[in-house]
């Protein structure tokens, strides 16, 4: 059975810049045959997938459909005997309720006394707050933390990276983590911040950086991230623009150079998976490349945090390419998955991108492995909460990031044993 979450927009009728989702509905869809999968896949240029069509999936699927397309889509469902149901009758109302919940949480937090030098995980921080926290850590722990300005976004925002480990040690193995490449996936940046917080501010975790250096980039798409806070909660891409194109932004995780544009990426600048005009066209990705590439010899584990779906996936995004160390990749991914499952009821799927999700090239973990020689490279698709997709409730954030940190510690143990005898 093929079951997946889909996000449909008729682009000629709805501008990619319009954030009013009034009348949009979210359907849960069950796909039981390859033919049904192909029918929906034919809409790929007009579709923004919440999760892309997935092979061998047993999870029910969601798709958000604009009012102009709803009659056509439901007719297709009926003609093809595709089982479906409405799970969100009005997306605008759903997003409004999330905004209200977030606003009330922020009022509650502001009424409480809190330090400007630490954070709590009961709300999603804005980009400036993320950067301020990193800088505060550097000031507080100068012998243990260093922060680098690796570049600026298209709109001029600072992109920061934090190194955790003794200041003068630059020869240790590296665990490299990034987050926020897709703007609407707020939980990814929150998870990266929690990892930083635990590594730096909790003495019981200091052993994690005794033999390993950590490099973490908590928000590498700050323009998109801010736009998803201020204008369009479901914005995915960067915010770059040229005079020649009608829609802003590029999918950063289709903009890496390895097998760029081969499959699973669009040439339509209005598509949610637009690959960009050329590899590394985005200044944010150029900054990422220029910072990470000189470190690649020492990077023993690369993790890119995304949401959602409880997947830990490894290269490659094309079935013609198979890593020589696939057995190790799967075994190490399973260490992450099983460690979390022991703590909570969350279950994870481990496998190659093209096998357990979909074919898509131009992604960061493929580039890290193929062009930089990083042998253990993964994308982690973090959990969602009760069918809310990218809209993870702030009130449930702490248990989720705690789960992930358990998995991160298990991965650290493997890396330390292998590379730090």
TrEMBL record:
<dbReference type="GO" id="GO:0006508">
    <property type="term" value="P:proteolysis"/>
</dbReference>
<comment type="similarity">
    <text>Belongs to the peptidase M14 family.</text>
</comment>
<dbReference type="GO" id="GO:0008270">
    <property type="term" value="F:zinc ion binding"/>
</dbReference>
<dbReference type="InterPro" id="IPR000834">
    <property type="entry name" value="Peptidase_M14"/>
</dbReference>
<dbReference type="InterPro" id="IPR003146">
    <property type="entry name" value="M14A_act_pep"/>
</dbReference>
<protein>
    <submittedName>
        <fullName>Carboxypeptidase B-like</fullName>
    </submittedName>
</protein>
<keyword id="KW-0732">Signal</keyword>
<dbReference type="InterPro" id="IPR036990">
    <property type="entry name" value="M14A-like_propep"/>
</dbReference>
<dbReference type="GO" id="GO:0004181">
    <property type="term" value="F:metallocarboxypeptidase activity"/>
</dbReference>
<keyword id="KW-0378">Hydrolase</keyword>
<dbReference type="InterPro" id="IPR057246">
    <property type="entry name" value="CARBOXYPEPT_ZN_1"/>
</dbReference>
<keyword id="KW-0862">Zinc</keyword>
<keyword id="KW-1015">Disulfide bond</keyword>
<keyword id="KW-0645">Protease</keyword>
<feature type="domain" description="Peptidase M14">
    <location>
        <begin position="123"/>
        <end position="415"/>
    </location>
</feature>
<keyword id="KW-0479">Metal-binding</keyword>
<keyword id="KW-0482">Metalloprotease</keyword>
<dbReference type="Pfam" id="PF00246">
    <property type="entry name" value="Peptidase_M14"/>
</dbReference>
<dbReference type="GO" id="GO:0005615">
    <property type="term" value="C:extracellular space"/>
</dbReference>
<feature type="active site" description="Proton donor/acceptor">
    <location>
        <position position="381"/>
    </location>
</feature>
<feature type="signal peptide">
    <location>
        <begin position="1"/>
        <end position="16"/>
    </location>
</feature>
<dbReference type="Pfam" id="PF02244">
    <property type="entry name" value="Propep_M14"/>
</dbReference>
<keyword id="KW-0121">Carboxypeptidase</keyword>
